[in-house]
């Protein structure tokens, strides 16, 4: 993880000196994502809190959803898909079942 390039989306940070290969994106999120997608390289992976994920979903910039279903029910937690302005239709791209009972479901927007 330390050796791969990282981008931190923040409106308050100006540097990320404590983590190698990290730069700050502080501009408009849609514009920053478009710039990242235009750069050479492989896949972009977004990790962060639900508010960040919700903003990416609403902007329509998610090309793939990787959902992990764990064999446990907690009965609480933040929803992955909050109230959206309109439905996001998905198509199943891949599914993997692990001996632990965990399922990995990979979806892509149906229109992409």
Going by helix content, strand content and strand pairing, the class is alpha+beta
Order of secondary-structure elements: EEHHEEE
Roughly how much helix do the residues carry, as a percent range?
10-25%
Morphology: globular
Strand content: 25-35%
Q: What is the strand arrangement across the widest sheet?
A: 3-5-4
The strand count comes to 5
Could you tell me the mean pLDDT?
Answer: 88
Overview features:
112 residues; alpha+beta; 2 domains; three-stranded antiparallel β-sheet; two-stranded parallel ribbon; 5 strands
Please give the structural blueprint:
Layout lengths: L5 E4 L12 E4 L3 H10 L11 H10 L5 E5 L20 E8 L5 E7 L3
Parallel strand pairs: 1-2
Antiparallel strand pairs: 3-5, 4-5
Describe the structure.
This protein is α+β, with helices and mostly antiparallel strands. 18% of the residues lie in helices and 25% in strands. It has helices at 29-38, 50-59, and strands spanning 6-9, 22-25, 65-69, 90-97, 103-109. It is globular and about 40 Å long. The chain starts with 5 loop residues before the first strand and ends with a strand. The protein has 2 domains: 1-45, no CATH class; 63-112, no CATH class. β4 (90-97) and β5 form a beta hairpin.
Summary?
The protein has 112 residues and is an alpha+beta fold.
């Amino acid at each position: 993880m330390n050796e791969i390039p990282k981008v931190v989306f923040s409106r308050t940070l100006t540097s990320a000196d404590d983590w190698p290969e990290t730069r700050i994106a502080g501009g408009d999120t849609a514009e920053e994502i478009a710039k990242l997608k235009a750069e050479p390289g492989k896949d972009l992976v977004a990790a962060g809190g639900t508010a960040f994920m919700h903003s990416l979903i609403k902007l329509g910039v998610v090309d793939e959803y990787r959902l992990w279903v764990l064999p446990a029910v907690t009965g609480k937690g933040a929803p992955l898909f909050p109230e959206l302005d309109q439905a996001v239709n998905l198509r199943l791209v891949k599914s993997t079942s692990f001996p632990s009972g965990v399922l990995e479901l990979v979806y892509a927007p149906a229109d992409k």
